[in-house]
Each structure stands twice: as structure tokens, then as C-alpha cells.
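Progress note, project year one: complex with pyridoxal-5'-phosphate.
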Amino acid sequence: MNYTGTRGKYAISSSEAIARGIASDGGLFVPESFPALSDSEIKALVEMNYCERAKLVLSKYLTDFSESELDDCVKGAYCGTFDDDNPAPLREVDNKTFLLDLWHGPTCAFKDLALQLLPHLLTRSAKRTMSDKDIVILVATSGDTGKAALDGFADVPGVKIIVFYPENGVSAIQKLQMTTQTGNNVSVCAIKGNFDDAQTGVKNIFSDPEMIKKLSDNGLVFSSANSINFGRLVPQIIYYVSACCDLLKAGKLAPGEKFNVAVPTGNFGNILAAVYAKRMGIPVNKFICASNKNRILTDFIRTGTYDRNREFYLTSSPSMDILISSNLERMLYHLYDGNCAEVAKLMDSLKKEGKYTVSAEVLSKLQSEFWGGFCDDEAAEKAISKLFNEKNMLCDTHTAVAVDVVEQYRKETGDDTLCVMASTASAYKFAPAVLPAVFKGDMPEDGFKIIEKLSEVTATPIPAPLAGLDKREVLHKNCVEKSQMAEFILKTLLK
Ligand SMILES: *Cc1c(COP(=O)(O)O)cnc(C)c1O
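Model obtained:
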């Protein structure tokens, strides 16, 4: 299996795609074709555990990894790192609605599923393709990626990691998770700007010839742990395949029967992984793309115009406060049947004018598979209340956006196909926004008292990685202007 680019042709191995992270022309790496899972393979997958399923799915994409390498990667990522034997278990809301709980990992958000595996994939990829260089992972985070990447890469030999987050764009708990990170190869820095500024800054630095040369002269090379890296995307395909297998195994779904997938979306990475699962043969009917008040994807799916010239809102689902959904570029590439020139044109227009419009044909293809919806913080809070009061189930503010949008979808379309909703974070990570939805008394003032109250009110345990966070020492206090990111990187690396 070779990998090519969304804006220009390449023919590189999966190792090279993962080690490089992003193409030199600014495009993203994509597989040349989608590997298929045959009916008999799906039958076999149903009987497997998560790690075995992971190995089979990965082996279809990472064809230059040996079986024993994949075995080591998967075991390192998923054995003993999650607080459940199955890193991605389903929770039944009713017999047509399931939550796919993706937050049992070390940082309590779904990013762990990819970022526990990525360091294993990346170090092996780099050894094969750029053996003499140390890797510098640059991360822009809206909150959850940063911590998950720090946890995955801390003290990994041959790797340094630098994380940028928007000073006022992450929750207090997310910030503490990052600023208390230990490890002799980690740096964390706030920027005066929003997530898109951080992401754009990082993307520009990746393709800045001067920066690349300065690093290279010092035996260093950039790579990415953001979902622009294919190594982030491929682990996410696994849990959609696994969810389908669990439904088949439990008899909730008949072989070949289609189901809907709803995903609370920001960068379009998680939902794109579900699209890849479908292209491999997993029977998905509709992708329900759920946005918060930053409804740029809803508007895109409804009109075919992607327009970032709009007000930016900070919401109770900060990991989705995004106006440049970078993985949408891969979706466009697939919708345009691999026409890189068209994709390059759209991306150029996004850069220059902040918007683009897809062709009528592409819009109709998009709408045949996707339904886009959004909700504001108030509706998300109501969704949390309702789920808790009616089903005694707790969900976080991001998942709540999907819960509300699925309800809108069902009302509007009458389609009651079984639906799997990605449940992307532990409610405890966003406790100050979740508690008011399930408790009407006085709010405790202190952030950690809120966590304790949430546990008391809902009779659910505080996840171990979050307990005691307030007692850890803050190790990272840097904050720079968005124009100073490159300077910070050089100062950190070449000191
Ligand atoms: C990152 C994140 C999202 C959005 O995922 P994308 O892949 O960017 O669409 C949703 N919920 C949570 C909790 C997240 O951390």
C-alpha cells in the first residue's frame, strides 16, 4: 500500500507518511486506495478482542510493518494503559442508540486511542526512513490532543515534543493536565490566540524551509502528532470496526445491516476515520456530523460553501472550537476522486479568501452520506440532563452535542436506524460545565470541589488520571505571541 498527497502526487510507504506527518506542498498523506475487509474477515473480527482487531486493521494500511512489529505496537498502546479491557466499549442507551466510550485512556479523551499508539508507529517509521535524526513533534492543541500526545511521547528516546495551546481556549483541567506534565523531552507553551492560530502557526513552521534547515543542521526533523498525520487517523478506524463487531456479536445488528455513526466534530478527524471504516466494508448508512455553535461544518454540509469569515465562539465544548477543519481536506480529496489539482485550488482559496465552494456534484455526493447539525451550550446542557435523568448515564459536553444533534436528525428525517455516537471525553474533564446539568444546588467554587461534587451527585468514580491533578506542580509557564512560536521552538531545541 502506497501513500499519496491531497495536493500533489507522491508514492511513499506508510512509514514515510507517518514519519513526515505532512507533505512538503502542505497537503496531507492519504492511502492510494482503501483496503477491503471481506465478509469472512469481518466474521473473524467479531470473535477477536480489541488488540487482535487492531492488528488486522493496521496490517491493511501499514504494509511495511512486520506482524511482530504491529504486535509490539498494539500491545504497547492498549495493554494496561486503559481502565477497561476493551479500550472502546459500547454503552447501550436504548436498543437503537449506543455510546461508544472512547475516554478510558490515560488522559480521559478519545485522542488516547490514537496517541497511545502513534509513538510506537512513529519511532519505528522514523528509524526506517530517517535513521540518523531525532524527531521533533510539534502539536497545536484545542486541549485534549496536547495532553494525550505529551502522555504518549514523554521520555520516548529520540523524540522531543513541543505543545502549543490557546491561552484562554482550554478548560482549567486541560491546562493543568498539560502544565504539570513531566518528562525530559517535553515543552508546553501557551499562545496569545485561538486554536486556529496555533494550528496555522504549526503548519507554517512545518513547511518553512529556513526552520527545516536550522533543525536539520542540528540533527533534528519535524513531525506531527496532530490528526494531519496519517498515523493519528489509522488507529481511529479500528474502534469503528470494533464497535460494528461488538454490535454483531451482541446480536444488536444483523450481518450486513447498516447503522448510523454520529460524531461530535472539530477537525473532522474522528468522523473521517468512520468514513475510512465504511470504505473498508463496515456498513454505515449516514454520518451525522455534530458541531457546536461554531457550526462551520454544518453550513458546509448544507450549502457546499466552507466559509471561515465568521465570528468565533468559545463554547462549553472547547475541543470543537475550530474554524479550520484540517482533515476535511482528505474528505475533499476522496470526494473529488483523487483530483489533487482541484483540492489544491480549494485549499488555496481557503488560505487567500477564507472560503471555498465545492462543485454541485461533490455537494450531492457529500449530502448522500452526511447529515450536519449543530447545537449551542444550552441545548448540550439539556442533553446531559436528559440522559442523566432518564437513563442514569453521564456524558461530557462534547458527546452531548452529538446526543442533541442525533435527536434533531431523527426528528427531521424520521430515520431511526441504529446509531452509534462517539463519546469522546470523560464528563469529569469538563466538570464545571457538566455539573450544573445534573445538580441544581450551589456550585462549589474550586475546580476540584466541582469534580468531587460531580462524583457524589452521579455516584460515578473520578477517573484516576484526574484525581490529585490539583496537587501536582506546575512545570510549564511559558506564554508567547502567536508570531513568536518559531522563536520559542528554536530557543527550546537549540539551547
Ligand atoms: C478532539 C475532540 C473532539 C473533536 O475531534 P475531531 O477529530 O477534531 O473532529 C471532540 N471531542 C473531544 C472531547 C475532543 O477532544
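The chain has a mean pLDDT of 95.
The radius of gyration is 21 Å.
No further modelling is planned for this target in the current period.
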